[in-house]
């Protein structure tokens, strides 16, 4: 029996990769499983495809052929990667809190996605038109 794959689940239709921060305070070792729990509570599903923990571990939270929930109205064909952190230790201001291990993992993941999905556009959450957020608290274009 042949099944028709909905367009949003077709890996060939993946066109974007969006980087996020979890908006957790600097140094707080929040695990990927916790972030997924928060997202399920808030959005009814896991938001991101991969979460990068403080030690640089890349934890797969959603398969690439599943639609995430990380950019309002723009989740089809859009992979979401989130690093733990993004706010200062006082939990007040956006801050680039990426550890060296997280930076290395994010670079590696972006390179892998560029290879796997040629032409994929890599952006920070705040780089999407109409988004008024600090996320991911660093400039993706100059950092990667
Ligand atoms: Zn975001």
Automatic annotation (TrEMBL):
- InterPro entries attached to this UniProt entry: Amidase/PGRP_sf, Amidase_domain, NAMLAA_amidase_2
By its UniProt entry, which Pfam families does this protein fall under?
A: Amidase_2
Entry's Gene Ontology BP terms: cell wall organization; peptidoglycan catabolic process; peptidoglycan turnover
**Catalytic activity annotation:** Hydrolyzes the link between N-acetylmuramoyl residues and L-amino acid residues in certain cell-wall glycopeptides
Q: Which UniProt keywords apply?
A: Cell wall biogenesis/degradation, Hydrolase
Name the domain of life: Bacteria
Gene Ontology MF terms in the entry: N-acetylmuramoyl-L-alanine amidase activity
Q: Where is the N-acetylmuramoyl-L-alanine amidase domain?
A: 1-137
Q: What are its E.C. numbers?
A: 3.5.1.28
Q: What protein name is recorded for this chain? A: N-acetylmuramoyl-L-alanine amidase
């Amino acid at each position: 029996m042949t099944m028709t794959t909905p367009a949003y689940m077709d890996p060939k239709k993946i066109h974007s990769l969006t980087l996020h921060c979890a908006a957790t305070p600097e140094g707080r070792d929040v695990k990927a499983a916790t972030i997924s729990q928060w997202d399920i509570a808030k959005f009814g599903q896991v938001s991101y495809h991969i979460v990068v923990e403080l030690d640089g571990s890349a934890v797969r939270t959603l398969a690439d052929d599943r639609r995430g929930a990380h950019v309002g109205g723009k989740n089809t064909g859009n992979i979401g990667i989130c690093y733990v952190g993004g706010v200062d230790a006082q939990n007040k201001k956006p801050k680039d809190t990426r550890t060296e291990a997280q930076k290395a993992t994010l670079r590696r993941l972006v390179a892998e996605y560029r290879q796997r999905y040629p032409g994929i556009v890599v952006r920070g959450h705040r780089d999407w038109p109409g988004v008024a957020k600090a996320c991911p608290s660093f400039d993706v274009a100059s950092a990667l």
